[in-house]
Specification:
Number of strands: 8
Largest sheet: 4 strands, antiparallel
Mean pLDDT: 81
Structural class: alpha+beta
Number of helices: 6
Number of domains: 2
Order of helices and strands: HEHHEEEEEEHEHH
Helix content: 40-55%
Length: about 230
Amino acid sequence: METLEQVQEDEKKRTKKSFFLAIIYLILTAGFTSGSMKVMNYFQLKTFSTEDSIVTTMYSNSWFILMIFFYSLIIIPSIGRLIFGNCKKIEVKDYLKRMLFVIILTIPIIVISYFSFYSYLDIGNRSITYHPFWSIEKRVYAWEDIQSVVIDRATSKSRRFDYYVYFQDGTKLDIWGNTRMNIQKLKQVDDQIRAKGIPKYIDEQPNESNILRIYADHPEEEEMVLQIIRE
């Protein structure tokens, strides 16, 4: 018969094991989510980009990120238990139930992935194509359809500032905060904005000191950002 000390020791071991497994699952989930984003962006680039494109990128993909992350937290441990669990103790019915559970969970991911794939922004030299999430039809704008551009403080800490493009029909796009565009591509778009004489305003001035600190090791990118966030 086990003593109280043995029971407590076994409980500590199980707690440590569960903790390390949770860390591993979180790392795998974060990696899978990041990898899924990159794969999605790659196929969007290959599918929707043209010779005229300046940049082709995902647009407003928070639903996709949340769904992938949430279901990965469920699916990865389930698959782990199926692979590394004690299969001898699992009956065929229980095994099939677990497999069915995993398959059912992938259905919403497929649906969200489909709409996320077609939610993109393509900015070209002659036109701008925007396909909203949950929408069947895409919108194609000429540069002349842009009413104005507004620079504002970021709603997301990872971006530091937002770059809003307002169209004549009332559509507003944050082409920096809601995309995976890099600063070099944004600079190209901003150069087009300036060259075409499109009005550009600053709503709330971004914190330049923070921006300078972030790009301190990249002087070329720092100069690009400062040009972008100024009228």
